[in-house]
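[User]
If only I could read backbone structure tokens as easily as an amino acid sequence. I have put the entry right below:
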Amino acid sequence: MIAFRSVLFNAVFYLNLIVQMIIFTPIYFLLPRKKAYFVPKFWARSNHWLFKVIVGATFEIEGLENIPAGGYIFAPKHQSFWDAYALLPWLSDPFYILKRELTWIPLFGWYIKKQRMVPVNRGARGKVMTAVMERTKAEMNAGRQLIIYPEGTRRPPGAPPEYKYGIARLYRDLQVPVVPVVMHPGLFWPRRKFIRQPGHFKVQILPAIAPGMDPDAFLAHLVDVMETASDKLLVETVEANPHLILPPTAVKRLAELKAGTPGQAEMRA
């Protein structure tokens, strides 16, 4: 049954994307930029409904009161394609720094450009990166929220953390709060797999880290805060969903936690 529901969800998920782009594209490009954001946010909400109805997977968000006003860096754990879009409805005007090749995709790239996402050539240095930072500061000064994944790429639940120093540089240069977010959607929507598992999970928005710390101290603090909360949430999520088929990384981390073995966050301290 899980396999059937997974295949059905994957088919309907992409069909939903195509149908909504056909229906909403004229409206999207005629509306002012910020008002047009209702289109991707509605798409995200419709995917949540499909995930619930077809797969039987639901979620709740804790800590919305920790979201500050104005511009800030939103720093979630990244485990699944789910978290690439899922939280858009709860952010007023988010944007990404993303690889420029995405802007070359017909129609999809036009959607990205409409929302003033910041494209970057990953191999660039010098003046190009200075221009990227200037664009990012301009969007932040307009009260927008930069979504950036501190580990850079998707990591399976329970995997050892691999935080990149880039978020510390952004924290230093932008001088805005950083909002850490932990969650384990990868247990229900695994990366690089078609299986979708039913159950319920939490998204925890942690208290914002105020600007002004030394970048190295900030990064150490961010890793400690996020990994401590992530470990607790992993245990809670698995206990609440005993039917889950767990990835090896989660099995290993749960065994370490049960044995009292320190994780990478603790060993950094």
Observations:
- The mean pLDDT is 93.
- The longest strand covers residues 199-205.
- The longest helix spans residues 2-30.
